Input
Amino acid sequence: MQTTTAVVDKERFLVEFTPLVKRIAHHMMIKLPASVEVDDLIQAGMIGLLDAINRYEGTYGRQFESYAAQRIRGSILDELRESDWLPRSLRKKMRQIEIAMRALEQRLGCPPSEQELAAELNMSLEEYHEALHEVRGCQLIYYEDYQEDDEDHFLDRLCGDTDNTPLDILLDKNLRESLIAAIDNLPQREKLVMGLHYEQEMNLREIGEILGVSESRVCQIHAQAIVRLRLRLRNQ
Output
């Protein structure tokens, strides 16, 4: 029979580690399409946290936080798998943006601006920004192998581990020098966003506060930076 103390402890741990759930959910959001709601990720993460509290048998300290983070992330991934969140149309839209960027770089001899990309795609600037926001969840899919068919589930590779960022994936593929050079050649604002998110581990809202722009605008800047990086790395 569960004691009153055990119940109180469980409630205390839920309150104490709820910020961890929110931090993980917001960090994963930048890798997911606009159709995914962060509140759904947080709800799934809370289920993982509760499961961690019920299963854990060690001392509730730093080790528990690491264990809980794994259970939280796993619970969110399970929810994403079940919801089938990655429409094929998003992959197609991503390819269209990438093709336009490649054509403009060859024609202009320099990285194209947002206005130039929008014109190449026969879009208004507002429509182009919306397209960037929509495709934010599929821009990293082919970093590992650039193949259409994946042997393993994409989510397991993209979000499976705490340190499994796009940068870590590329490091594992011995592309460190190419990636550093590609990032260094990004426009200044895009390079700053990449650094704040992947090195400083800031979420979109925090980066937006630093840049003085909206969270949605940070998402667009990040998505465009990834398109440029994909193009540079493919060309190499």
Observations:
- The CA atoms of residues 122 and 170 lie 33 Å apart.
- DSSP finds twelve helices and no strands in the chain.
- Confidence is low (pLDDT under 50) at residues 1-8, 139-155.
- Residues 4-29 form the longest helix (26 residues).
